[in-house]
Recover the amino acids of this structure.
């Protein structure tokens, strides 16, 4: 029954069905049922026309005195004068009015529901929901009446929120409990005191009370999150049971020598703990798939390096993969410095490595001579073959999807261990869904003696003051980054801004006293490298750049980060950029430059940056602001299928759902037991149905 095409539902028919498909992706009864309300209103209460100006949403009861189509062309509209016992208000329709005008009768009592808007000093209701106030309609008015998202096109066809609710009511009048298959086991339902799926769906659309609505929401959110977790954790379990891992049984010469003789500082407790987790993982006999989360500057590189030494200690090769060439270069330099005086072969391989050199590297990888390889995506090309690759570290910028990660592990017959480092922290709930198939370690402590970066927000009027400050800092021997946004869509304009900014800057900071580097995507790799090197060596004091330096560069003497048009950057990007300073002993600063007028979201982003240096806190705000849809890597994660659950708010439900999924799999990872049959079936169904949007167009 649920797979019945939507056109067969009473009151729908072919034309409306077509619109529902195109506008909301509703093809079947099942799709309509999961078009959940986006909020509820108390429809037992009626407002008075007199009070309309003070309300946000009103429900009025009264009669239409007159109807009139007025205006010309674009301004043509239907107006209705509506009256209750306290006054009159105009209802207005700009579209679909012919149809509506036919339907409405003067002198008949109506219920009107809508949002008051002010026009020419008077309030009116544009495109309100309107229904005749029959005894039947009045008796159904509920304290929790569903309000549905609709679209302009659907509204013209009578499918506004009210129309959708009517369709839903027809559907539920035919539906019985047996039509809706239960999708959770009795055990789980009992454990979490959940109502049945049928009951939940009924209550979400037609709640009997606040409490019933809450139960319904919990049940539906739980289920959405539960199946994502079940899928991810099952992947993890199956991997653990079917894929053998190399056993790194010893901590040997390389690790110990480095630890005792070459480590330039004490490890933080967090670094020690995470290293131990990694060591246990790699010694366990199963293949490691571990995510290391840590704030910018928390010392992830060192953890990577020491894990790689463990691989060498066990006679394996290891590689580190970075998202950009500059970062690969930087890591290579860091590793070389750290490992100097230790007898380890280490090499850099990127897109710009010369063919001759590349061939030599390939040979050394094949015969096992080369132990540590650092590079970009060039590393995972098929021509790159290792003798015995034991550990792959991915210093991540673009979040890889589950599927891409799976591909990486097929390089060997016994796949290498995987260690994945995030560039910036992501909220726990998001990590659990994007990386739910991985084990997670968190470096939740910063190296000691770091001075928190001071962040300020200025507008254009303060530019001279900012320049004055930069001069002071440069006079004190510091270096400065000035970063411009580069957004693909407005690339041309952005380069203009960058160039203009650079030209103005040069006037203010003239040679030879000041030297300014500039780096952007239009330069060749050699040019970029040349400019970078000048800055690293301290020959230039200012580095003007687009976001190419966003990831990872480490220049301790650079202590000021100026971010131009900061309102155009996302929070995690801002935080990542700010993390480029604060790496030395000096007090560091971040200056956010924006226009004077800011939207509410931009303002909150600036305030958040000024308030805190804590990347985890920032990532939570980011998730609330943007929602998970805009965050990289979410497309294939299942997050996009969430209809009711919200990762920014439903962390507790997510925890419960994950626990439930985990304990089911602990007992029965293949979902073979009779009581778990329902899960095996549901996973199959969902696999067939995902992704949802593929059915459209
Ligand atoms: P991220 O986690 O952002 O990759 P890095 O690994 O680049 O951070 O580390 C940032 C800086 O902190 C580096 O200069 C590194 O040498 C230094 N560092 C790392 N661990 C420690 C430690 N335990 N004590 C002092 N400094 C450390
Ligand atoms: Mg790093």
């Amino acid at each position: 029954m649920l797979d019945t095409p939507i056109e067969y539902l009473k009151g729908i028919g072919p034309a409306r069905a077509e619109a529902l498909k195109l506008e909301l992706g509703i093809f079947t009864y099942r799709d309509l049922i999961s078009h959940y309300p986006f909020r509820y209103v108390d429809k037992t209460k009626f407002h008075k026309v007199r009070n309309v100006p003070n309300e946000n949403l009103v429900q009025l009861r009264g009669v239409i005195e007159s109807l009139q189509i007025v205006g010309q062309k674009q301004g043509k509209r239907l107006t209705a004068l509506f009256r209750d016992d306290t006054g009159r208000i105009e209802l207005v329709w700009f579209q679909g009015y012919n149809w509506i005008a036919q339907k409405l009768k003067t002198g008949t009592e109506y219920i009107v529901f809508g949002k008051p808007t002010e026009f020419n000093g008077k309030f009116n209701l544009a495109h309100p929901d309107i229904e005749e106030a029959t005894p039947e309609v009045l008796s159904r008015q509920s304290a929790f009446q569903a309000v549905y998202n609709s679209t302009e096109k659907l509204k013209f066809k009578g499918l506004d929120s009210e129309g959708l609710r009517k369709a839903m009511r027809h559907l539920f009048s035919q539906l019985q409990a047996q039509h809706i298959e239960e999708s959770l086991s009795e055990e789980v339902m009992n454990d979490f005191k959940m109502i049945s799926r049928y009951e939940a769906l009924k209550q979400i659309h037609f709640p009997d009370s606040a409490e019933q609505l809450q139960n319904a929401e919990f049940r539906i959110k739980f289920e959405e999150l539960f199946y994502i977790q079940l899928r991810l954790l099952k992947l993890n379990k199956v991997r653990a049971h079917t894929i053998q891992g190399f056993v790194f049984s010893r901590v040997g010469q390389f690790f110990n020598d480095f630890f005792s003789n070459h480590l330039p500082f004490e490890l933080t407790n967090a670094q020690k703990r995470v290293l131990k987790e990694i060591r246990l993982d790699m010694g366990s006999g199963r293949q490691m798939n571990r995510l290391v989360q840590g704030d910018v500057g928390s010392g992830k590189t060192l953890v990577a390096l020491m894990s790689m030494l463990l691989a060498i200690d066990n006679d394996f090769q290891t590689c580190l993969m970075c998202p950009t060439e500059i970062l690969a270069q930087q890591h290579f330099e860091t590793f070389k410095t750290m490992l100097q005086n230790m007898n380890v072969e280490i090499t850099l391989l990127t897109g710009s490595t010369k063919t001759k050199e590349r061939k030599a590297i390939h040979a050394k990888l094949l015969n096992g001579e080369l132990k540590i390889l650092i590079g970009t995506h060039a590393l995972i090309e098929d021509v790159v073959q290792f003798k015995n690759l034991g550990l792959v570290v991915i210093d991540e910028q673009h979040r890889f999807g589950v599927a891409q990660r799976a591909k990486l592990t097929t390089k060997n017959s016994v796949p290498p261990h995987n260690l994945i480092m995030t560039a910036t922290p992501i909220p726990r709930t998001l990590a659990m869904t994007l990386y739910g198939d991985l084990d997670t370690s968190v470096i939740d402590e910063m190296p000691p003696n770091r001075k928190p970066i001071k962040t300020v927000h200025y507008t254009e009027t303060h530019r001279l003051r900012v320049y004055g400050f930069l001069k002071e800092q440069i006079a004190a021997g510091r270096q400065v980054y000035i970063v411009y946004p580069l957004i693909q869509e407005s690339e041309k304009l952005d380069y203009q801004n960058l160039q203009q900014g650079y030209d103005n800057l040069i006037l203010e900071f003239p040679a030879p006293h000041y030297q300014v580097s500039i780096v952007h995507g239009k330069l060749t790799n050699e040019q970029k490298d040349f400019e970078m090197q000048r800055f690293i060596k301290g020959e230039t004091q200012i580095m003007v750049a687009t976001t190419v330096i966003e990831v990872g560069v480490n220049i301790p003497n650079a202590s000021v980060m100026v971010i131009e048009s900061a309102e155009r950057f996302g929070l995690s990007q801002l935080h990542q950029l700010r993390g480029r300073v604060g790496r030395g002993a000096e007090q560091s600063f971040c200056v956010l430059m924006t226009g004077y007028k800011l939207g509410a979201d931009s303002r909150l982003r600036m305030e958040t940056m000024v308030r805190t240096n804590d990347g985890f806190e920032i990532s939570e705000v980011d998730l609330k602001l943007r929602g998970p849809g805009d965050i990289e890597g979410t497309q294939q994660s299942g997050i996009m299928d969430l209809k009711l659950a919200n990762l920014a708010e439903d962390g507790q439900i997510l925890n419960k759902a994950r626990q439930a999924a985990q304990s089911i799999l602990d007992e029965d990872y293949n979902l073979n037991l009779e009581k778990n049959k329902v899960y095996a079936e549901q996973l199959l169904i969902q696999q067939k149905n995902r992704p949802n949007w593929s059915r459209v167009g």
Q: What stands out?
A: Residues 265-268, 271, 294, 296-302, 447, 554, 583 surround adenosine-5'-diphosphate (ligand 1) (CB under 6 Å). The chain has four domains: 45-141, 210-242+645-695, 253-443, 454-612. The two ends are 24 Å apart (CA to CA).
